Amino acid sequence: MHVMAGLLRDADGRVLLAQRPPGKHLAGMWEFPGGKREPGETPLAALARELREELGVTLQHAEPLVALPWNYGGHELLLDAWRVEAWIGEPRPLEGQALQWQLPALVDMAILTPADRPILQTLIEACSAAASGR
Ligand SMILES: Nc1nc2c([nH]c(=O)n2[C@@H]2O[C@H](COP(=O)(O)OP(=O)(O)OP(=O)(O)O)[C@@H](O)[C@H]2O)c(=O)[nH]1
User: What residues does the Nudix hydrolase domain cover (predicted)?
Assistant: First the structure.
């Protein structure tokens, strides 16, 4: 299973998190907006569709950040995280999910789905490398 995750950041550098709804795997935990790639879809098309369905935004530009194989109790997935650099529209919770913007360094890792913790860490390191000109 190939799962796309979009890391949207606002002008203050805060990242958008969405809460998984009750009744689903990892309900109540926070994740990056996204979802499963469908057969025949490119990763970018899948990411654009999920962001349109979940947040009502139109993806304009995204860059791959990290793709992480993960195993949730025998359930294998490839979590493919992209930095969403530009989009049109204000993200809205179209599926009833709670949303929050948070500075990456201030996110309590314990609220994230386990697979998202190393992804957020990768984002934090990429931001600090960019800030120091490395
Ligand atoms: N969308 C998304 N899914 C993630 C993230 N991190 C993570 O572990 N996952 C896991 O990836 C799997 C696929 O998520 P999904 O949102 O497409 O699927 P779902 O469980 O909501 O099911 P459904 O869309 O078929 O109803 C789930 O097991 C979910 O917990 C993330 O940041 N974004």
Answer: 1-125
